[in-house]
Amino acid sequence: MRDLSALFDPAAVAIIGASDDPAKWGHAVARQALRAGRRRPVHLINRRGGTVLGRPTARKLAEVGAPVDLVVVAVPEQYFEEAVDDALAQGARAIVGITAGFGETGADGRARQRAIADRVRAAGAALVGPNCLGLVDNTTEVYLASDAFTPGRVAFLSQSGNLALELGLRLTARGLGMSRFVSYGNQADVTLVDLLASCAGHDGTQAIAVYAEDFADGRAFAEAAAATSKPIVLLSAGRGAASARGAASHTGAMTSPADVVAAACRDAGIHQAATVRDLTVLLEALSGVHRATGRRTAVLTDGGGHGSIAADVAEAAGLTVPELSAPLQASLRGRLWGPSAVGNPVDLAGMGEQDPASYPAVVETLIAAPEVDAVLMTGYFGGYSVGGGALGRLELSAAEQLAVAAACGQTPVVVQSMYPESPSCRVLAAAGVPVFGAIEDAARALAAVTPAARTPSVAPLPPAAEPIADGGYFAVRGLLERAGVAFPEAREVWDEDGVRRAAGALAGPYALKAVGLLHKSDAGGVALRVSDAEELAVAFREMRARLGDMPYSVERMAVLDDGVELIAGVRRDPRFGPVLMVGLGGVYAEVLRDVAFALAPVDARRARELLEGLRTAALLHGVRDKSPVDLDAAARTVAALAGVAAAHPEIAEIEINPLLASPDGALALDARVIL
Length: 675
Known about the structure:
There is one protein chain. The chain is an alpha/beta fold. It folds into five domains: 5-134, NAD(P)-binding Rossmann-like Domain (Rossmann fold, 3-Layer(aba) Sandwich); 149-286, Succinyl-CoA synthetase domains (Rossmann fold, 3-Layer(aba) Sandwich); 297-448, Rossmann fold (3-Layer(aba) Sandwich); 489-556, Dna Ligase, domain 1 (2-Layer Sandwich), CATH 3.30.1490.20; 564-674, D-amino Acid Aminotransferase, Chain A, domain 1, CATH 3.30.470. It has 25 helices and 29 strands. Helix 6 runs parallel beside helix 7 (218-227) and helix 10 packs across helix 18 (439-448). The two termini are 35 Å apart. The model is unreliable at 240-250 (pLDDT under 50).
């Protein structure tokens, strides 16, 4: 892990470009930095000299006359390189580049940025930015951004300053705060991966939030995330309208940037947020100490409508709301009155109004039950304390009992209330029980602390194999066959004599393909179930007359009746590397879009998980009079394809479509590659 101690706990700080002008970034950063003036020296540098914020300044860093670990550069673009060189000459070990106008401006800017980063690395220093908004470490009193953030246990790594301000406000309102904030800008030197690794090893950080617009090395980000035990929540931009424009294969056309990011998150165990509010919900849940051991959720309410909606929303979030066992129902009945329902949802049916202590009594019973993994409380609780009076005091007492029960147990409890800011709900929140005003937020939070379907892992890329130069049909067949992929017997033909020789060598019926075309079916370049040599010759003459001279393939026709056609493909993403897609294939691939994604390579076990996660997976297990397909053979084929793609960085796209999965195995009926 890269040593970033000079960034987060420097012995002394200097700000080049410190200013008295409130409109300039050098003013805002200097003002914040001076808050920690008793902890470490803060030197202000202004080329005109004089004073800034009532403090004397130096005209150049060399005039400081004392060692400086960390230098913030907030000067116009034309002076930036000089300031960086001055910092390195004075022995600075870290630089924060606020100045913009480099890699984000085009090729010339990127070249200048690379040259600066090379000089920084050669000096053994670290550069955050340029084009960043600074950093904060509340645990070491490093305040080098324009705003202050409430101290807490969440580290936020972001390419947006305003989002950091919004998240800071939302966290503060939820009783949370930030351990660190870093705006990492253009990542010329210090990358998101470096910062993630640093925060993962930071004792003051419990959860890590990331806002990313450009991952740079997305693969390394996913690998670093999978390697840490601290929860990571990602909010990313560009997940919607952008698609794989110009993709030549079905796989490329069906794989969007959003699919790639989602696949990386699933593989690495990263929680994905859609908005800043969603990010806050997940961080609140993951900042708690309790984790569920399963997804079995007990819903508790004092109103049937709230309970029914909560159960629906919980199941939509991936939780289960099973009927409680007879012994547990009996135990609950012993604590409740006659009208109460105890099946799940557990409905107090008005008893909460008569006796608010029934809430903690039921929660204590539920969290002690081995069959309950989590409790979701929903509805009116909190409303009585708003009005005060005797009932309000009883509810406050019940909230205190409930808070103790939740803290002492190991089962997570999440609350949705119509009155989330009420005194009773504030008692719960202060004790670490998440309280939300919306049931969808409460269910989302609870789902976040349930165990993932699989252990996070991102398989490393294999060493690059000898590059291939031939992207033709028979070349890709050979490449995949050597990896263990099975194809029907085939012969390459160029003329009618070749067609007849192929018919004599292969058993019919036959398939004829114009393999010089990328999308054969769309162009009418495929003839199936050709019965004999004469019919095959006729089909060849007609096809060549329409499509012209090119290589054709005569193949033994596969038996399609007992199989399911799948698609398996890999597209190389510029940020995340090879990304595998599997789904229902053939003519339905782009119509139904029943697909799953993962970072390649994958093993056969992971490939099978992807296949069984399809919406149409029931087809693979046999429906009506059809037998189950050989899923293990299909999974091995998918894994072999992913392995080939991962080992050949020159492959932009590769796919098998269709991949025929049958009770007898898996057979690749067509394959294509884009180099």
